[in-house]
Amino acid sequence: MRLPSNRPLRITLMSGVVLAILASLFWLIGVTWAPTWIKKQIEGYSQQLGYSIQIQSIDVKPFQLAVQVQGLRLDQIQGKQLFGLDTGLIRLRWSKLITGELGVQDLQLTNPSILLERAAGAGPRITQDITDLTAIGARDIGDVAEEIIQRRKDAAAPLYKQAFEAGEVYSPRIDELLAKSKDIKTAIETARGLPQYADLPANSMLLLDKAYKYVGDMANEARKAGKGSRANDLDTLRMDLLN
Question: Where are the domains of the chain?
């Protein structure tokens, strides 16, 4: 007489153990690695859009596919707050996540505040950007951000072309900045390390534009390092160079 086989039971138990291990790994990744990754993604997109973003904390709930953000602040050049949020809850779609996208199923904002007063002509642009990013529905966050970035580039292209055609800039204020600002000198020397900028004069529009971007990078690095005053000073210097 043969005894009943325990093989199905063993297979069931092993499957349960494997699923438990996978679930544990999913939870561990969600609460340890995911918050840092999400924060970096948000900061990266905000910098491409020309803003500085600060986040107090990010809490990820893996099995709910939910991300809770505490204390979000979106600042413009010179530190003026454009958008503030006490708490934000984003719930993602499983179907999008499987394909490697971040499709949003639900978005809840607690005490959002938007600054509409800005430099002339800039308010509508900021408001539209924030509206697009906070009303994405089931769309992918990355796609929306890329659309905004491309829209900015398309709008700025004619202005850049007109400015670059001017060749060199002759301005007492620019001359003063070039003579007295160590940070601008550093940015220009860094730019001249690239072959296409090596022989350009200091007042070249192309070189000044590159220096402007480098000073912005310096401000972002200072802000990441917790040096808020230094970052604000660099932002002010950057605007002086722009104007």
Answer: 28-152, 166-242
